[in-house]
Amino acid sequence: MESGQPSRTAGSAARYRAAHQILEHGAIFADPLAVRILGVPADELLADAPRRAMRLFIAARTRFAEDALAGAVAGGCRRLVVLGAGLDTFGYRNPYPDLAVVEVDHPDTQAWKRRRLAEAGIAVPESLTYVGVDFERESLADRLRLDGPAFFVWLGVVPYLTRQGFDETLGFVAGRPGNEVVFDGQQVPESLGAEARGAHRVGAGVAAVRPAPPVHPDAATAPRAARCRREWIEHGCVHARQRYWSAAGGRAHRTVAI
Ligand SMILES: C[S@@+](CC[C@H](N)C(=O)[O-])C[C@H]1O[C@@H](n2cnc3c(N)ncnc32)[C@H](O)[C@@H]1O
């Protein structure tokens, strides 16, 4: 993040999702607002064809998150928190009448998103609220008040945080029984199993983590976060490969993450 500027990577992630709608017709992740919120003409997105591996990964991680959310909602979840939301569009096409959505993001990115929404004519539903937070300078606990357990989606943010920013945020999420989180991040080869280490190129993984209740408030600290981080890596890679790549004719072992 550059001071006073919206996240450039939020624009890139949104562009991958938009291009996926045009180039793969949303085969992994269908998002009717992806092109509109970006504001780039569809024919320009055709030029993104060569960046297929990353595009499929971005589509898969978002699909993974929304599938996991669907399961949580079926289980009674009534709150979604999108951490580092960027141009994510879930809150504007939320199909669950009882699900409240909070978008948390850096204030500069959030201001830009709200301008883009207005320009694109995308309405902000009453179920959606915004909270501006800089994860590196502010505590999520101070800024985000929740009156019950929530499902957190935290995509494309971890690689940009310091270890402290990561641990604090995951500690907050893990600190309340009933919370769940889906997040992704860069992998270090030593943390991967033999199959993953043998891959041509290691990209990123995505996973769901459900802190096991009961969680004592004192347990929401770095060691717990570190344990979660180790657990999600292999788990998430296998899920992404099994569930989504075949939908786009992808060969995961050659392209992304596995
Ligand atoms: C790669 S974008 C991902 C956006 C969105 N989650 C997606 O998948 O399209 C990274 C997001 O992290 C946010 N971010 C990065 N550093 C941050 C920080 N220190 N505090 C709050 N948000 C931050 C950016 O504003 C941006 O929205």
Q: Quick recap of the structure?
A:
The chain is an alpha/beta fold and 258 residues long. 40% of the residues lie in helices and 13% in strands. It has helices at residues 8-23, 34-38, 42-45, 52-74, 107-120, 140-143, 163-174, 194-197, 222-243, and strands at 79-83, 100-105, 128-132, 151-154, 180-186, 204-209.
Structural class: alpha/beta
Regions with little confidence, pLDDT below 50 for 5+ residues: 195-258
Number of strand segments: 6
* CATH architecture classification: 3-Layer(aba) Sandwich
Helix content: 40-55%
**Sheet with the most strands?**
6 strands, mixed
Distance between the termini: 28 Å
Strand content: 5-15%
Order of helices and strands: HHHHEEHEHEHEHEH
DSSP summary: helix tally: 9
Distinct bound molecules: S-adenosylmethionine
Number of domains: 1
Radius of gyration: 18 Å
Quote the average pLDDT: 77
The 3D shape can be described as globular
Which CATH top level class fits?
Alpha Beta
